[in-house]
Design goal:
A hairpin with a 2-residue loop joins strand 36 (795-804) and strand 37. The chain is built from 29 helices and 41 strands. Among the domains are: 2-210, Rossmann fold (3-Layer(aba) Sandwich), CATH 3.40.50.720; 294-458, Succinyl-CoA synthetase domains (Rossmann fold, 3-Layer(aba) Sandwich), CATH 3.40.50; 512-589, Dna Ligase, domain 1 (2-Layer Sandwich); 729-896, Gcn5-related N-acetyltransferase (GNAT) (Aminopeptidase, 3-Layer(aba) Sandwich), CATH 3.40.630. 36% of the residues lie in helices and 24% in strands. The chain is globular. Keywords: ATP-binding, Ligase, Nucleotide-binding.
């Protein structure tokens, strides 16, 4: 539905400009003029009762007076009039609207009220989609549509640009025209009263001209929809994003170590990475990335070949490449031999290829063609520093010819000014991305490499890590729920004792902790636990105990315990903040000489919800700043990647004869933290610091949890606090087939890839043909990732898990994929040959239809082979309409779920 109605905006056949004017400098005149000058091929209707004609076009008094129901209305009237204009458009059947008028949420409370009124009015006319208000508008170059306030029309290309900043649009358009960079779509979204970035990403995913997206983001709403759309897009095409406002100076000081380390910008960093989005940290990088993506939107490997006529620039490029974890391509022996025959004896005989300062265009051309042919080369960077005999324009022509002969990316840096200007112009016109410095070339190249790495990381098959818990979910959450019920609507810190109780319920091993409210009670506990022990101040007001010198270590006797108790009490009493002293906690002293101190925690971000963090811990955690972040839920591969990304990873693995820590146990701890955060939306912040890891064990020595009573979980929106939908465990069922065979009916998960491959291998050629409509010899990881790594907000695959010869197997899988609006879903099913005829198809189909109705999907469609009579009969029994008219060998089926029983 979104695609259908956004099409009215991006591919209209007729447009009304409401508020069009002959008044110079008015928004209405500029908007109409740009539409006309842009060469729009549809019908244009100015609407203004004060004119008979505007720009020689007949003007109409109102939208009701228009001779037809137009697809798109561009509103340029004063802010106060816009709600009524939107109403008139709705009554006239206009469903596509762009509001260029300003004076809404961006100006204050009254403007926000007007914007809310616009949204309320639009909702009374189903299908209405609004871009804006306070936006520049849109440009669709392939359709000669300039429905914007920007006078210049950029070239048609394959990059879609979405900007939350209207002021940025004009300079970007000027740059694009100067650099001959084309756009498929160009959108200024303004205040996003209705159409969101997520909706635009989904729409552009279906746009035949869009091969990549560039985003300029100031802030986001609807994080789950955004990440879901972005993850779907980046499976096949790249997104580059620039996020402004990286530092939030007004943010309140965080109460925990994790809270201090997970800032506003770092949450965006984690979210972008999880969605496969490549982030540009400089606006220059965003522009340059747009140009490169216009030429090479597909990911490539990180092995770069460098061809240069000067050693210095080659070294500069190499340094920049290695700094960003790229690789210099290692040439094959045949490539070295060919270059030996083509280049002077003094050439470098390695990568970078130094073709020597007097290199002609012929020498450049032969070296380039040889390097491009090497299978160890993923991309080529050509550098030119003009020498006395250099012909920058001639070399540029040679580079253009080489670039046209390959699908590998070719980049260039022509260093200098006047002498290289013509060469730069030719490269630009010839479609070769050219930049001023070698470092900039490398940065842009690594953006594309990073996109490939991100996409690959998100599709890595995780290992199955079964987690067991000492109690059920209700009991796991009890301490959290009770605390929130006692103080609803407030931020409630749990004591160390309570925090550790929560951790124990989630299967963490914690240092045994007991509360002592007197000296003698502390001694009695220490005698029972065994010496040495640790005493820590017990006070709900004190978050960081070391800040008040509230920790005493290695206490070896009852006398030392008494002295420590008194000393801690005295320090707290003398503290300038006047904290309440509630006693101490007593726990065994854990020797950490062969262990590593880590911090593991989470903080709720206002946009993306909980963000998980793991890093170097202890009292210096905030100073060291060695940490990694991810959005929950985690799987084994994501958790392991977090650890591997730490600077201290070599120490965790083991260094110079010192044993490493138990990484598998650490991964399990991250998965347990993820589970805790998924199940407990009430947690605002949580720290385990230090989490002590050794080669044998991982133990939580200290912990603190802060709850937010306003986030009490509601059964109807159990996972509303998460930006990514976790594995839908609620759909798991243990059942029996008609013949009594026990099976598990459940959603598929990434860990199922090995079983999915075995399922495919067990199927006959006929079964494969009927399911996939084409034949293949072997299922690849890329294919498996499409079917096993799914977004549970958009699609679901139900598998039948069986036990054969003591081994878990998948006997069948049924899948439905919904459109972005959950309006219609495509359905497909596969049953292994040896399990056919036993009711699995009916079982999985009924389960999927039930879930589709729960998702409020209106209809389900599928196709099957005309010869698959068993499947056709199964669809008929469930009320599907059968359509045999499309093809002699294919049957289309459809079922409406609106009033289905």
């Amino acid at each position: 539905m979104t695609s259908k109605h956004l099409k009215k905006i991006f591919s209209p056949k007729s447009i009304a400009v409401i508020g069009a004017s002959e008044r110079p400098e008015s928004v209405g005149r500029l908007s109409l003029k740009n539409l006309v000058d842009g060469g729009f091929r549809g019908r244009i209707y100015p609407v203004n009762r004060n004119y008979e004609t505007i720009l020689q076009l007949p003007s109409f008094a109102s939208v009701a007076a228009l001779p037809e129901t137009v697809d798109l209305a561009i509103i340029c009237t004063p802010a106060a009039t816009v709600p009524d204009v939107v109403k008139r458009c709705g009554e006239a059947g206009i469903r596509g609207i762009i509001i260029q008028s300003a004076g809404f949420r961006e100006v204050g409370a009254e403007g926000a009220r007007l914007q809310d009124e616009i949204v309320a009015v639009a909702k009374t006319f189903p299908g209405t989609k609004i871009i804006g208000p306070n936006c520049v508008g849109i440009i669709s170059p392939h359709r000669h549509l300039n429905a914007s306030l920007a006078s210049e029309m950029p070239p048609a290309g394959n990059v879609a640009f979405i900007s939350q900043s209207g002021a940025l649009c004009t300079p970007i358009l000027e740059w694009a025209i100067n650099q001959n960079v084309g756009f498929s779509q160009f959108v200024s979204i303004g205040n996003m009263a209705d159409v969101t970035i997520a909706e635009l990403i989904d729409y552009f995913a279906e746009d035949p001209w869009t091969e990549s997206i560039v985003l300029y983001v100031e802030s986001l709403t609807e994080a789950r929809a955004f990440l879901s759309a972005a993850r779907a897009f980046t499976q096949s095409k790249p997104i580059i994003a620039f996020k402004s406002g990286r530092f939030d100076a007004s943010a309140a000081a965080a109460a925990s170590h994790t809270g201090a380390m997970v800032g506003v910008d770092s949450a965006y960093e984690a979210a972008f990475a999880r969605a496969g989005i490549v982030r540009a940290n400089e606006l220059d990088d965003l522009f340059d990335s747009a140009e490169f993506l216009a030429r090479h939107p597909k990911p490539c490997g990180d092995r770069l070949a460098i061809v240069t006529n000067a050693g210095g620039p080659g070294v500069m490029a190499t340094d920049a490449l290695l700094q960003r974890n790229g690789k210099l391509a290692q040439f094959s022996d045949s490539t070295i031999a060919a270059l030996d025959a083509q280049l002077p004896a003094a050439w470098s005989r390695c990568n970078p290829v130094d073709v020597i300062g007097d290199a002609s265009e012929q020498r450049y051309a032969s070296a380039l063609q040889t390097v491009i042919r090497d299978r160890n080369v993923d991309a080529v960077l050509v550098l030119l520093a003009p020498q006395a005999t250099t012909d920058p324009s001639g070399v540029a022509d040679a580079v253009i010819a080489a670039a046209k002969s390959t699908t590998k990316p070719v980049l260039a840096s022509w260093m200098g000014c006047t002498r290289v200007a013509e060469g730069i112009r030719r490269l630009t016109q010839g479609g070769v991305p050219v930049y001023a410095t070698p470092e900039k070339c490398v940065r842009v190249f690594m953006q594309l490499v990073r996109y490939g790495r991100n996409r690959e990381m998100l599709c890595e098959t995780p290992l199955e890590v079964p987690l067991t818990f000492p109690v059920d979910e209700a009991e796991r959450r009890r301490c959290v729920v009770d605390a929130v019920n006692e103080r609803p609507g407030e931020r409630t810190p749990l004591s160390e004792y309570e925090s550790k109780l929560v951790l124990k319920n989630y299967g963490f091993r914690v240092a045994e902790t007991e509360i002592a409210r007197s000296q003698e009670e502390a001694v009695a506990i220490a005698d029972r636990l065994g010496y040495p022990v640790v005493l820590k101040v017990y006070s709900p007001q004190i978050m960081h105990k070391t800040d008040v010198d509230g920790v005493e270590l290695n206490l070896t006797s009852g006398d030392r315990v008494r002295e420590a108790y008194q000393e801690i009490g005295r320090r707290v009493a003398q503290h300038r903040f006047g904290f309440e002293f509630g006693g101490v906690t007593v726990q065994p002293m854990v020797v950490a000489s062969l262990s590593r101190e880590l911090i593991l925690g989470a903080k709720r971000d206002p946009v993306f919800g909980p963000v998980l963090l793991v890093g170097a811990g202890g009292i210096t955690a905030e100073l060291v700043q060695d940490y990694a972040m991810e959005l929950p839920p985690l799987n084994e591969r994501l958790a392991r990647r977090m650890l591997e990304s730490l600077q201290s990873w070599p120490l965790l693995k083991g260094y110079r004869g010192r044993r490493g820590v138990n990484v598998d146990l650490l991964v399990e701890c991250l998965l347990r933290m993820s589970k805790l955060i998924v199940e407990c939306p009430e947690i605002a912040e949580i720290d385990i610091n230090p989490l002590l890891a050794s080669d044998r064990d991982v133990i939580a020595l200290d912990s603190r949890i802060i709850l937010d009573g306003k986030m009490r979980r509601k059964s109807s929106s159990r996972f509303a606090h998460l930006a990514i939908r976790p594995y839908p465990e609620e759909f798991i069922r243990n059942i029996e087939l008609r013949d009594g065979t026990p099976v598990v009916l459940r959603p598929i998960k990434p860990e199922d890839e090995p079983m999915w491959h075995r399922l495919i291998e067990s199927c006959s050629a006929e079964t494969i043909q009927q399911r996939f409509r084409y034949m293949f010899r072997t299922a690849t990881h890329t294919m498996a990732s499409r079917f096993c790594f799914i977004d549970y907000d958009r699609e679901l695959a139900i598998v039948v898990e069986v036990i054969e010869d003591g081994v878990k197997q998948i006997a069948g899988v049924a899948r439905f994929v919904a459109d972005a609006d959950h309006y219609e879903a495509e359905f497909a099913i596969l049953v292994a040959d040896r399990w056919q005829g036993r009711g699995l198809g009916s079982l999985m189909t009924d389960k999927c239809l039930t879930i589709c109705k729960r998702w409020n999907i209106q209809s389900v469609v599928a196709e099957t082979a005309a010869s698959n009579h068993r499947m056709i009969q199964m669809f008929q029994r469930r009320g599907f309409e059968i359509d045999r008219s499309k093809s002699f060998d294919t049957v289309m089926v459809k079922k409406s779920l609106l009033d289905a029983d």
